[in-house]
């Protein structure tokens, strides 16, 4: 089985697939070039794919190296998943300082895409919590990178899409927790205007906020949805019992199960779910990782896969650009299963190519209907570009080079740090 | 049920042994790990130490097990570190290139040395130790390849077949001493040792799945175990094909 990205697009095969298992072994000079690391295949698009050369699977680099339970400092190999970290550190009172919506990503992937979570406005992105990392270059050089040093290797590698060399280990600063539960308040909002107000208020009070919106709602109800605000629960005299269930998507349906009808039903039901404005306890697993409960959920889109579209638009433009994006989607008769809206905080990202930046981010997924879908995404591009925004490389399979280059002005300086033997289909696409 | 609180792992950095080590540590065991590659052994021990609770002891030693002269020292050191030994897993081995062995008997001897004789040397010492303490379990990773000689890998098969037979005798002897001897036949496992194979299909097991099977077999004091159930039937069938017919097959 050839490695694929999570949205199963594009389908490209490298010349060779090599499992890495020994972090002390230098990169093999006999492997066909270019080289690229592939973690657990949770990015969308082609940042983790190459059409030629070698994909180096990092899941064999899954060892912990050191953990200081008093200071919450963990060092581990790059192929360790966030789930494996949580299983180790949560019982000892620590948590990931920043986590994406899946815990099945690897640490190396989290660094290379400088991933973010619901607490971006409070604690920044994943890269802000990396204390050190080690890079193996194809010329045999080993570079230890620290945030405080000025030579650029750290800034290039955080969000560097795995292009600066092989990340072998990462050292993280964790955050302390009292227990495995979250205190969560959910609130319904009737439209986008209410969202802006509600979201501003929630961000001042809560470390975690995120909103789901019904992207099919039109007119006065445009952008209606549910805002979830949360924080790690305080010590409790008594905690509920949590039992994790697991389901699996067992087959590829012949067509996408996400279609006009199912979207309408799902979105309407989701909006009408019971909310808890007074707050309640939720275990961290369903709170942070609702989709991980269904293994291989990406198969619901069928064999042709789907497109993720995640953009960010600057604060000044957001209140005009977000409705424009939603208008375009509804007019096109498309919809997204889960549309997620979140405001990034003011903290600048550390990486040269980091995606998070001040503004509002909207994440959508669309079943792949070929040209029809791509035409819609091109229209969304125009709005994002006009607003001075950009797209998330870790969720992209098709953005034009010009949009990448305008959104990541440091890309040319970054080129100096790219390992000459490393490349990805994404990188070839956006730099050509 | 055999308790597995203090276990020695030979060939500890192999993919199967590493997964077994992690699962044993998760169940509260103290481990003594022997591996040939110093970098890999250090990485393994550091990882297990991070996973282990404060009461568990994780230690080990670098050794090439082809060097029989070190075996006694290794076992003494492990016994010293662990206090007592509840179980041993011998997991080291190599997968020879059959054609290279056909071209050069030195190659064949080397493979038999690694896959059979070095294990038999360890087993000889361990058998006496366990016989004395009148309890415990010795598990060895053999192979389905040892169930019948086939043209595609009969050197490996012969080495593993020797192990399987040796273990049968040892089991018979140690049964009187209340010591279990477990022969593990994992079948195809997706590990770096089998990197050159196309691993699609239901015959292939994952190392963590094999590890789980090994621990269960050790705890229950099983005799000969196939990790995936159907291998027993596949091998039963293969063993019963008449030789006059089998010799013309290309398995």
Automatic annotation (TrEMBL), chain A:
Pfam families: FAD_binding_4. InterPro entries: FAD-bd_PCMH (IPR016166), FAD-bd_PCMH-like_sf (IPR036318), FAD-bd_PCMH_sub2 (IPR016169), FAD_lactone_oxidase-like (IPR010031), Oxid_FAD_bind_N (IPR006094). Coiled coil: none annotated. The keyword Acetylation does not apply. It comes from the Bacteria. One of its GO terms (molecular function) is oxidoreductase activity, acting on the CH-OH group of donors, oxygen as acceptor. Keywords: FAD, Flavoprotein. Residues 1-177 form the FAD-binding PCMH-type domain. Gene3D superfamilies: 3.30.465.10. The keyword Flavoprotein applies. Signal peptide: none annotated. PANTHER family: D-ARABINONO-1,4-LACTONE OXIDASE (PTHR43762:SF1), L-GULONOLACTONE OXIDASE (PTHR43762). This is FAD/FMN-containing dehydrogenase. It comes from Franzmannia pantelleriensis.
Automatic annotation (TrEMBL), chain B:
Keywords: Oxidoreductase. It comes from the Bacteria. InterPro entries: NAD(P)-bd_dom_sf (IPR036291), SDR_fam (IPR002347). Transmembrane segments: none annotated. The keyword Oxidoreductase applies. GO terms for molecular function: oxidoreductase activity. Pfam families: adh_short. One of its GO terms (cellular component) is membrane. The keyword Oxidoreductase applies. Belongs to the short-chain dehydrogenases/reductases (SDR) family. PANTHER family: DEHYDROGENASE/REDUCTASE SDR FAMILY MEMBER 7B, SHORT CHAIN DEHYDROGENASE FAMILY PROTEIN. This is Short-chain dehydrogenase. The lineage of its organism: Bacteria, Pseudomonadati, Pseudomonadota, Gammaproteobacteria, Oceanospirillales.
């Amino acid at each position: 089985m050839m490695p694929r990205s999570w949205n199963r697009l594009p389908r490209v095969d490298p010349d060779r697939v090599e499992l890495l298992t020994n972090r002390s072994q230098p990169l093999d000079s006999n492997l066909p070039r270019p080289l690229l690391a592939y973690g657990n295949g949770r990015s969308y698009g082609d940042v983790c794919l190459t059409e030629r050369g070698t994909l180096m699977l990092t899941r064999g680099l899954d060892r912990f190296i050191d953990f200081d339970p008093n200071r919450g400092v963990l060092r581990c190999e790059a192929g360790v998943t966030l789930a494996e970290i949580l299983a180790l550190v949560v019982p000892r009172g620590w948590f990931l300082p920043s986590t994406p919506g899946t815990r099945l990503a690897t640490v190396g992937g989290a660094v290379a895409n400088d991933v973010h979570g619901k607490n971006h406005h409070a604690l920044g992105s994943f890269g802000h919590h990396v204390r050190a990392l080690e890079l193996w270059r194809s010329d045999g050089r080993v570079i230890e990178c620290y945030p405080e040093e000025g030579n650029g290797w750290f800034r290039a590698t955080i969000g560097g899409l795995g292009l600066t060399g092989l990340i072998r280990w990462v050292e993280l600063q964790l955050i302390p927790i009292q227990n495995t539960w979250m205190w969560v308040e959910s609130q319904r909002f009737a439209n986008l205007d209410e969202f802006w107000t509600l979201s501003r208020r929630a961000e001042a009070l809560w470390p975690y906020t995120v909103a789901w919106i019904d992207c099919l709602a039109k007119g006065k109800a445009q952008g209606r949805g549910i805002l979830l605000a949360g924080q790690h629960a305080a010590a409790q005299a008594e905690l509920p019992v949590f039992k994790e269930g697991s389901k699996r998507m067992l087959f590829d349906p012949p067509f996408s199960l996400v279609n006009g009808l199912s979207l309408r039903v799902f979105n309407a039901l989701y909006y009408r779910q019971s909310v808890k404005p007074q707050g309640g306890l939720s275990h961290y697993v369903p709170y942070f990782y609702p989709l991980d409960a269904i293994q291989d959920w990406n198969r619901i889109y069928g064999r042709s896969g789907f497109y993720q579209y995640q953009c960010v638009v600057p604060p000044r433009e957001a209140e005009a650009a977000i409705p424009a994006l939603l208008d375009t989607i509804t007019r096109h008769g498309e919809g997204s299963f889960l549309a997620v809206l979140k405001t990034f905080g003011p903290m600048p990202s550390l990486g040269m190519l980091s995606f998070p930046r001040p503004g509002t981010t909207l994440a959508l997924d669309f079943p792949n209907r070929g040209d029809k879908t791509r035409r819609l995404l091109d229209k969304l591009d125009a709005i994002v570009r006009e607003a001075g925004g950009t797209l998330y490389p870790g969720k992209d399979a098709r953005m034009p080079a010009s949009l990448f280059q305008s959104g990541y002005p440091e890309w040319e300086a970054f080129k100096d740090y790219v390992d000459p033997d490393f490349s990805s289909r994404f990188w070839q696409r956006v730099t050509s | 049920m055999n308790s597995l609180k203090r276990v020695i792992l030979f060939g500890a950095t192999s993919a199967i042994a590493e997964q077994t080590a992690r699962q044993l540590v998760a169940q509260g065991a103290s481990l003594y790990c022997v591996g040939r590659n110093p970098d890999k052994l250090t990485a393994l021990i550091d990882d297990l130490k991070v996973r282990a609770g404060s009461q568990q002891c994780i230690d080990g030693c670098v050794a090439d097990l082809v060097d029989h002269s070190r075996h006694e020292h290794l076992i003494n050191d492990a016994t010293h570190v662990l206090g007592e030994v509840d179980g041993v897993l011998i997991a080291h081995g190599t997968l020879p290139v059959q054609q290279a062995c056909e071209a050069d008997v030195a190659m064949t001897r080397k493979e038999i040395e690694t896959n059979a004789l070095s294990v038999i040397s360890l087993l000889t010492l361990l058998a006496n130790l366990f016989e004395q303490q009148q309890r415990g379990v010795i598990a060895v990773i053999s192979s389905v390849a040892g169930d019948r000689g086939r043209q595609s890998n009969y050197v490996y098969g012969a080495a593993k077949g020797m192990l399987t037979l040796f273990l049968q005798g040892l089991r018979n002897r140690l049964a009187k001493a209340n010591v279990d001897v477990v022969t593990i036949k994992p079948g195809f496992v997706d590990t770096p040792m089998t990197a050159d194979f196309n691993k699609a299909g239901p015959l292939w097991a994952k190392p963590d799945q094999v590890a789980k099977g090994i621990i269960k077999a050790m705890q229950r004091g099983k005799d000969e175990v196939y990790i995936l159930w159907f291998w027993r039937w596949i091998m039963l069938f293969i063993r019963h094909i008449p030789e006059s017919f089998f010799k013309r097959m290309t398995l």
